[in-house]
Amino acid sequence: MTADRVDERRAGGVGRRAVLGGGLAAVGALVAGCTDRPRPPGPTGAAPRASAPSAGPATTPPPGAAPLVGDGVTDNGPLLQQLVDAGGHVRFPGPGTYLVDTPVFVDGGDPHGRVVLDLAGGTLLAGPHLPGTDAFHRDPQVRWVLWSNTRRTAWDPASGRVTVSEETRATGARVGALQAVAVRDGTFDGVDGTVGLVFANRSGTELTALTMVRARTLVSWHDYSDATRLQGCHARHGDGPRTGALVEQVSPGDGLVLSGCKADSGLHTARLSRCRGAVVEANVTGLLELDSCSNVVVLAGHQEGQLGDRTSAVVRQSQVTFRQTAFYSAHDADVPSIVVDDPPDGPAGSRVHLDACVEVHLHDGRDADVPHGPLLHVAGANPMTEIHARDVRAVTVDTADPGVWVPTAGPRMTARGEVADAVADLAGVVPPSFAVSRRSGGWHLQPTAGEEGGGDPPAAPDLQHAGAADGAAGRGSLRRGATYTYWVAVRDTAGVVSAPARRTARASASGAVRLVLGVARAPVEVLLWRGPAGARAVPEHHVRLTCASPLARLLDTGRHVEGLAWQRGAGEPAPPLPP
After folding, report:
1. Does a structural domain hold residue 413?
2. Which helix (H) or strand (E) holds 32?
3. DSSP label of 138
4. Domain that residue 438 falls in
5. Is residue 365 in a domain?
6. Distances (CA, A) of 163 to 157, 244, 563
7. Residue 21: pLDDT band by 50, 70, 90 thresholds?
């Protein structure tokens, strides 16, 4: 369950059109001869940089494999360009390290043309002399291997730049290409974290079962893109910088799909700008950044960004729905899972929908008595910003038994400015279904589901268990073996408070108490107090929680309950005390 866990993907073969006839074999021999000559140094005067030579494929290359050299030293760029020009499928010989130090252009001009590079388990190694482009305005220093739908005449070897524009588009000023390039089944090694695999000029890209190591990005594009798709791709920082993205979008695009992908802690699954329609489904851990995007759905995700002290998703002036996605809540109150950061005077506001998502409170054996980061934080908002949640729950899980998730109090939300005032009365724990907006002139948080109270006091909660917590639940700051008194009541949606239940509990050797309570109906607000033992004990601390389940399990670690801080005193209302 750690953020840096690596799921290795299969590497398989794909059939290709027979392009390696006698004529092409002769061309390959000629190009191979050319590449054997010493290569002049690049613009910096540095010698070509390469990984340690590989012994090449351990098995005989499959029939029809391209005569590429997987020794990590030979520049395969010129030969690969010839193979791409021939069209169809290009199959690499198999495992090996294939250096590409000369850019490859897909510029046949046919908007329906398609080139497939099957790495067949090999590694594509980026060389030091690949060019960059000012069209990637986020970082013009990034260099690129494949240039989709871009004329090779746009490359100026002397300056090391490629001019990506309408004028250099292979399919013309008014036409783009759908899925002009497909790369599959292998590894892309960016060496120093400043290299991208595909830069597209108004064209789509398909990447399947690729692992990116030490690279800045796998794919980006200029001007516009239709139907870019990544499936089963991984972003790994390896021994390189902890930066990078599977997709780094700097221009508008429609129909982006990322499915079954993963990124190591600190790396991005996608960094999107002006994306108009995307599905990000069944992905693990990778960070997501949306800027002026619309119609984005994040579905069935498993987000562990907080475990690496990183926010899982940043949303700016964007429309996004998170559906059935789990967000791990780590031990750092300053790191939320989702941040909404709209400029106060911006032309648009974000509309964020949370649908059946889960906030996961992770307790480990090192230290559980620390605040947890919230599920959602509103860092900036304008009058058009809206947050909607439906059936958003919180669960707790111990690292000793990570496969078992049980209900607990939550979810949690924090904010700045006027939005913070709207949620202040909720002590940071919001109902499972709510809306935050400024539709009525001022900021309000409005519960949108739940039973209405009938005026009669709700039934007292059933405090089913109060006792020493298993040491695996985490180390707390309660006095070991000391006995404490707990009171618990509930408040329904009409504001009516139940009679309290009361129990005593002895803290474990790890300084924690486990509480299990049942409620007659949910959601309700739970009022919890703690004091010393004794018949005439009075509360010394209190906390307010939202319970969305008929049964909830809470961990009191001394200063916090499920990562939410205890407040001093009995608060208001206080439980009735014995005379």
Report:
1. yes
2. helix 22-36
3. T
4. 326-449
5. yes
6. 11, 23, 52
7. very low
